[in-house]
Amino acid sequence: MKAFAYVRAGSVEEATEAYAAHPGAKYLGGGTNLVDLMKLGVEQPGALIDVGRLPLDAVEELPDGSLRIGATVRNSDVAAHPAVRDRWPALSQALLAGASGQLRNAATTGGNLLQRTRCPYFQDVTKPCNKRQPGSGCAALEGVHRDHAVLGHSETCVATHPSDMAVALAALDARVELYGADGTRSVPAARFHRLPGDRPERDTEIRPGELVTGVVLPAATAGLPSLYRKARDRASYAFALASVAAVLRVEDGVVRHAGIAFGGLAHRPWRAERAEAALLGAAPTEAAFGHALDLELAAARPLRDNAFKVPLARNVGVDVLTRLVPPTVA
Amino acid sequence: MADPLAAHHTATGAPAERREGRQKVTGTARYAAEHPLPGRAHAWPVQAAVARGRVRAVDTSDALSMPGVLAVLTHENAPRLGEQDDATLAVLQDDRVPHRGWFVALVVAETLEQARDAAAEVHVDYAAEDHDVLLTADHPAAYVPEEANGGNPATRERGTPDADFAAAPVRIDAVYRVPPLHNHPMEPHTSTAHWDGDRLTVHTSSQGTTAVRRTLAALFGLDEERITVTAEHVGGGFGSKGTPRPDVVLATMAARRAGRPVTVSLPRRQLATVVGHRAPTVQRLRLGADRDGRLTSLIHEVDTHTSRLKEFVEQAAVPSRVMYGSPHSRTLHRVTPLDVPSPSWMRAPGEAPGMYALESAMDELADALGTDPVELRIVNDTAHEPDSGKPFSSRHLAECLREGARRFDWAGRAVRARASTGNLLVGSGVASATYPVMVSPSTASAHALPDGSFAVRINATDIGTGARTVLAQVAADALGTPLDRVRIEVGNSDLPTAPLAGGSSGTASWGWAVHEACTRLTERLAAHSGPLPADGLDARADTTGTADADSPYARHSFGAHFAEVAVDTVTGEVRVRRLLSVFAAGRILNERTARSQFIGGMTMGLGMALTESSTVDASFGDFAERDLASYHVPVHADVPAIEAHWIDEHDPHLNPMGSKGIGEIGIVGTAAAIGNAVHHATGVRFRELPLTPDRILTALRERRHAPHAAMT
C-alpha cells in the first residue's frame, strides 16, 4: 500500500474534478469493499475521493412513475423503502439477501454496483490474477473454482460478480445514471457490468472518472410481481452459488413480459434474454419455464468443479417464475 | 428483585453470572493487543509464497527505507532460539520453507499500518521445489505411526476382527471424509512482548500461560522466574491457542531487537497456515453385527495428513475404542506427511471427526437391520470400556438417548418426515457423543483476609468459558462463604502454576486444586482463634499425585444429539430446524455457563456438518478460505431452536466437585446426527462433509436419474 490523498467532495462536479486532478484516484462510498482491498494491497489508489456525503442520498418518486435511488443511499435504506418493497420487491429481497446488517448499513447503492469479485486469487497478491494484474494468468481456471462462472467467462477470467442488488436491477430493467466529463448519461443495469473477454480488469462500462449518481427503477416494471431467490452455503452472509431475480407479467393466460437475471453465474448479472424471448406469448407453466431456462443455460460451460450451478440455476429459476404466476392463472 | 442464587444452598450448580461479563460488554476487558505500553511498536509477518523450497535471498532494503520501519527480521538476522519440542515455533531460524505461509520475515514499525506497508516491500527470492499437498487413502508415503495424538497407541486390535466381519450376517463397509477445518477464534493470535533488561513480560492470547512461559524460557535461554506471561482475557481458542504459537515467539524476538515493546497480532488471512487446522481424515468403517444388532466386529481405520515439521496424528479412531461393546475390533491410524501447513488441536480432536464416521456407520447399520437407531445404540451399550476392560466410572448413554428421544418426540419422526411439503424434505437423525475425562495436577492458593473476604489465586485461563466464575463458586462452597466474598485471580504466570484450558480438563484440574486449598484454609481458620492477623491467613494446594493418580475406572462423558433438518430439493440447501442434545457429564457446576458451552459446541458441530471446510489448493499449497466471509462458520440464521439438557449424574470417581468436562462434547457426534437426518429426509447417504448445496443437489439429481443406484 502506498500513501494516498483523501478528498471529501461536496458536489458531483467537485468529485469528478478531484478525480481528474489526482492520478490513480478512486471514488469511496461506504468503503465496505474498497478499504478491505486496500489493506490487502489489491487496490492501491493514489487518492480517495469520498463521495459518501454527496447530496445523492434521496429516493425520489418521479412523475412518470419511476423511482430514482441516489448513489449514496445505503443498502439498508433501499431495502426498507416502502416504494421499493411495494412495487419492486425483488430489489428489496436481493438487498436483504446480501452481506450482513452492519455491512448493508454502510454500503451505498453506487458502491454495491462497483464492488469487486470475491475470487480468492483476485484477493491474494501473491498469486496470478488477470483481473488484478493483467497478463499474470488466471489461477482459478484450474484452481479452486467451485464458486466461479459457468456463463460468459473467458480463458483470462472465470470470476463472478458478487452483487445481489445488481441482479435484481438487471431483471427489473433499471438504469444506472452516470456523471462524467461528457455530462450525464444512463445505461441499462443489465449492460452496466461487462463480460471479461480479454480485458478482465474492467468490470463495468463506466468511463474513467465517471461517477455513478443513481439508479432508476422504471415505471414499466413497477407493481409487477417480482422475486429474488438466492442459493447459498449458509443462511446469511454468504455469496450466491446461484441466484435469480425475475419479474413477470401474465395477461390472458400468457406471458406478456418476463425479466429474468441470474447471479453467481457470470462476470455480470446474467440477463436471460433467450429465456425471456421464449416465454413471450407462452402459457406460464412449469414446463415452459424449464424449457426457456434450458435454452438459456445451454450456453453454460461449467468448469471442473462447478457443474452443479447449471441445474441449481435452472431449479431456482423455475421455482421463482412459478411463484410469480398469479394464482388465478396457475 | 429476588436474589436468583438465594434458592440454592450452594454456590456450585447455581447459574452465577459471568464475573467479567460487564467488562466484556462495555469494552473494558483488555485483550493481548490492548496493552499500549510506552513506545510500543507493531510487527507484521511476511509469509512464504511457495509451498516448498528454500529462501535464496531476502532483500529488505526497500522496506527498511520506509517511514517508521524499525527493523526487518529474517532467518539471516533474527535472534537464535534455543531448543524445544515444537518445530512450528522455530521461526526465522533457517532458509527452509516447509509449507506455503511459513514465516520468512517480520517487519517491525512504529505503527501497524507502516509495518503492513513495509511487509509488502520485503522481496524474497525462493528456490522452489515440487510440492505434494493432497491426502489420498492410498498415498505411497502413508505409514502407521507409533502413537496417535494424546498418547494413544496408533493401532489396537482385539480378537479376529477381519474374520468376524466377514462372517457377520449384517455388514456395513463405508468410507467417510472430513475436510480440513479451522478454529478461527474471534480474537486472532496475538502477543505483546516487553523486555526490561533481562526480564520479559508478555501479554498473549493463549489457553495456558504456564506452557508459554516454559517455552519462552527454553527459546530465549531465560530462567522462568524472569518471565511473566499474562492472558487476562482470551477471545476464544478452540484448541488453536492450546500450545504457544509463533506470534509469541515473533513478538519476543522483535521486542528484543527493537528494544521496545512490540505487538504481533496475526492478521486473519494469515491464521489458516500458521496456527493449525483440524487435519482432514478419510475413515473406513466396517461394522459387523448379528441380526439383533449386536456388534461382533468393529474396524475403524483412519488416514490423515501431517506437515513436514511435526508428526501430528488426529486420533479419530480412538472413540471407537470406547463407545460400543464388540468382541472383535481393530482401530488404526495412518498418517501421510505432506507439504501442508501443520495441523493442530481443534475442539474435540479425534472425537469430533471419529464420531462423525462411527455414528454415521451406526445409522447405516440401523438402516440395514431395519432397527430404530436409538435402540441399536442401547443394544450395544456396555458397562466396561471395550478397549481397556475397565468398568466405566459412570456411563449414562442410554439415559441420554431415552431422555433425548422423549424430549425430541423421536417417536413422531416418521410422521414429521411424511409431512414434508413442496420442495422441502424433512428428516430426523440421532447420534451419540462421548468425550474422555481428563485431569491434570494443579496448584492454587487461598487467602483469608481480615475483612472477611477471600482471595483465590491460580494460573487458570478463562478463554470465554466462565472459568473465573466457576472457580469462585467452587471456592465459595469449600470456604462456606457467599460467592461475593470470593475474589479470584487467574491468567497470569506469576500465580500458582496450573495447566491449560484444554481437553475439557480445566475446571476439573483447577477446581480440584482450588477446592483443596480452600478446604485447607477452612481448617486453618477453624483452628484459629481471635481476629486474623493483618496479612490474613493462607493455604496452598498441589494436586500432583492425586489428580493424576491412575484410576481403576474408565472415565468419560456421554451424550445424545437429535437433529431435525429440512432439505430444499430446489437448491440442495440443508437447514437445521431443531437440535436437541442431552448430556451426562457429571455434576454441572454452573448451569448458565455450562449451557453456553454445550450450545457453543453443538453450533460448531452444526458448522462442521453443513458449512465449514477449508480447501487445500493443490497448485499453491495453502487453503483457499482465509477470511470469515469465505470460511463459513454458522451465523445466527443457521442456528435454529437449539436446546442442551443434561441428566443429574453422580460419579464419586472423578474429583471433589464430581464434574466431568463440558467444553468439547457438544461438538462430538453433532455432524453425524445432522447427516443422519439428511439421509432420513432424502434417502441418500452422504459420507463427505460439509453437506453443501453442490453435493446435495448433485446427489438428489443422480438419485432421480438412477433411483436404485444411489439408495445405498
UniProtKB/TrEMBL annotation, chain A:
Domain FAD-binding PCMH-type intervals? 1-222
Q: SMART domains per the record?
A: CO_deh_flav_C
Instruction: List the SUPFAM superfamilies.
Output: CO dehydrogenase flavoprotein C-terminal domain-like, FAD-binding/transporter-associated domain-like
Gene3D superfamilies (UniProt xref) = 3.30.465.10, CO dehydrogenase flavoprotein, C-terminal domain, Uridine Diphospho-n-acetylenolpyruvylglucosamine Reductase, domain 2
Keyword annotations for this protein? Oxidoreductase
Q: In terms of domain of life, where is this protein from?
A: Bacteria
What Pfam families does the database record attribute to this sequence?
A: CO_deh_flav_C (PF03450), FAD_binding_5 (PF00941)
- What molecular function terms (GO) are annotated for this protein? FAD binding; oxidoreductase activity
Q: What is this protein called?
A: FAD-binding molybdopterin dehydrogenase
Organism of derivation: Streptomyces ruber
From TrEMBL, chain B:
Q: What sequence ranges are listed for the domain Aldehyde oxidase/xanthine dehydrogenase a/b hammerhead?
A: 26-130
The record ties this protein, via SMART domains, to: Ald_Xan_dh_C
- Quote the InterPro entries the UniProt record gives: Ald_Oxase/Xan_DH_a/b, Ald_Oxase/Xan_DH_a/b_sf, Ald_Oxase/xanthine_DH-like, AldOxase/xan_DH_MoCoBD1, AldOxase/xan_DH_MoCoBD2, AldOxase/xan_DH_Mopterin-bd_sf
Keywords in UniProt for this one?
Molybdenum, Oxidoreductase
Its domain of life reads: Bacteria
Q: Where is this region: Disordered?
A: 1-25
Q: Pfam families in the record, alphabetically? A: Ald_Xan_dh_C, MoCoBD_1, MoCoBD_2
Give GO MF terms, alphabetically.
iron ion binding; oxidoreductase activity
Which PANTHER family does the record cross-reference, listed alphabetically?
ALDEHYDE OXIDASE 1-RELATED, XANTHINE DEHYDROGENASE
Which named protein is this? Answer: Oxidoreductase
